[in-house]
Amino acid sequence: MPGRVTGPWTLTDVLALPEDPHHRIELIEGALVTSPSPGVPHQRASRRLAALLDVAVEAAAAPVEVLEAVNVVVPDGLLIPDIVVVDADAAAEAGLTVDAHDVLVVVEIASPSTRVTDRKMKPALYAAAGIPHYWRLELEPAPRLYLGHLERGTYTDRLVQAGETTRLDQPFPVDFDPARLVRR
């Protein structure tokens, strides 16, 4: 690996690492956090949700872009959410990273290896970065989506269970049921 082998790591160190198709490498407070590449159920849900959001963005002519697994720079490091909704102008100018202040929505899909991080650590980091919406999709035991909206520095969640269709108006109109994001 280029750069230091021991920490603390910097953003420059992490961005200089070679791409690793088997792991996601994130940076939190100078420490590397790795997780295995997501499995098929996770990838299926991510792809379906991103496609659904793309259709909603097009229909609303919203000035945003939906991206999957991009590097988002937050005050305490670098995170790789499963899906982000980013300001379209910022996305057009982006290279290796996207700045948190250009992100409207982050979506994490909880896997067995990331469940604790997605529930505890990442919401606090995204809130500290001022990202207005944090959504967490949990696939087991049944699909459910926690829709977090930033209020006074923390996310207030609304739970949507499988079989329930919800309508969101912010940051653009979209209707969906978490059950439609998993195997048919």
What this model shows, in words?
With 184 residues, this protein is α+β, with helices and mostly antiparallel strands. It contains four helices and 13 strands. It has helices spanning 11-15, 40-60, 88-93, 115-128, and strands at residues 23-28, 31-36, 64-68, 71-74, 77-79, 83-87, 97-99, 103-110, 133-138, 144-151, 154-161, 166-168, 174-176. Strands 3-6-8-9-10-11 form a six-stranded mixed sheet, sandwiched between helices. A five-stranded mixed sheet has the order 2-1-5-4-7, covered by helices on one side. A two-stranded antiparallel ribbon has the order 12-13. The chain starts with 10 loop residues before the first helix and ends in an 8-residue tail after the last strand.
How large is the count of helical segments? 4
First and last CA, distance: 42 Å
Helix content: 25-40%
Widest sheet: strand order?
Answer: 3-6-8-9-10-11
Number of E-type strands: 13
- Helices and strands, in N-to-C order? HEEHEEEEHEEHEEEEE
Instruction: Give Rg in angstroms.
Output: 16 Å
Key words describing this protein structure:
single chain, 184 residues, alpha+beta, 6-stranded mixed β-sheet, 5-stranded mixed β-sheet, 4 helices, 13 strands, disordered N terminus
Quick summary:
The chain has 184 residues and is of the alpha+beta class. Helix content is 25%, strand content 37%.
